[in-house]
Amino acid sequence: MFSRNNTQALMDANFSEAQHTFILREYRKFDSSGIVKQKAAATREHNVKKAETKHQKRQVLVDKRNTLAAHAAGVKIVTDIATLKEHSKAQLEDQLAAHHQFN
């Protein structure tokens, strides 16, 4: 029970049998109140919500990336400098995204 952090050796060295019995009795009272189980349940619930939030954020990023990739896939790549000079800023950004898709 206490092997992970060598607590049993500490208790054997520093506590009398009466103190050890008292500690175990108090822990049993504490444990029977359900506080430990409530805390564990709250921690599990928090971890599940945190994982769901993380998954939702990741899904938003994936959807955005897929949308941008689909848009870039529909852009015709222009290599003529004269034609590129006539493009607007948005059209140039589309061209850049289309070129980055192949890298």
From TrEMBL:
This is Uncharacterized protein. It comes from the Eukaryota.
